[in-house]
TrEMBL record:
GO BP: response to cadmium ion; response to lead ion
SMART domains: HTH_ARSR
Name of the protein in its database record: Transcriptional regulator
Protein's organism: Arthrobacter agilis
GO molecular function: cadmium ion sensor activity; DNA binding; DNA-binding transcription factor activity; lead ion binding
Ranges for domain HTH arsR-type: 2-96
Length: 114
């Protein structure tokens, strides 16, 4: 069995956060466990699209599905992940907004975003 290296763990976390829907889901689950229908509504996507994102987040080891009778509740795989998201938001909030843009925008100095 292969062990994960630090860089592959961070890459997996970064991949999960790279999509706005997955980021919204993680932030919602940071606050409280939730159900797919509620998460789909919160993220503004169809239940099918959300299901694909939840599959990705489960595959990354970031969320778990908890059966509740006929329903399934999702929650963060580890509460420390919520703490990490909060810390990351604190760091990003103090960084320069001039460095941030979406994929279809340019930096304020005209350079293309990656």
């Amino acid at each position: 069995m292969a062990t994960l290296t630090h860089h592959s763990v961070l890459a997996r976390f970064g991949y999960a956060l790279s999509d706005p829907v997955r980021a919204r889901v993680l932030l919602a689950l940071r606050d409280a466990p939730s159900y797919p229908g509620d998460l789909a509504e919160l993220a503004g996507v169809s239940k099918q699209r959300l299901s694909n994102h939840l599959t990705c987040l489960r595959g990354c080891g970031l969320v778990v599905a908890v059966p509740e009778g006929r329903r399934v509740r999702y929650e963060l795989a580890d509460r420390r992940l919520g703490d990490a998201l909060t810390a990351l938001l604190s760091v990003v909030a103090v960084s320069s907004s001039a460095c941030c843009c979406s994929a279809d925008e340019n930096h304020v100095d005209g350079r293309a975003c990656c």
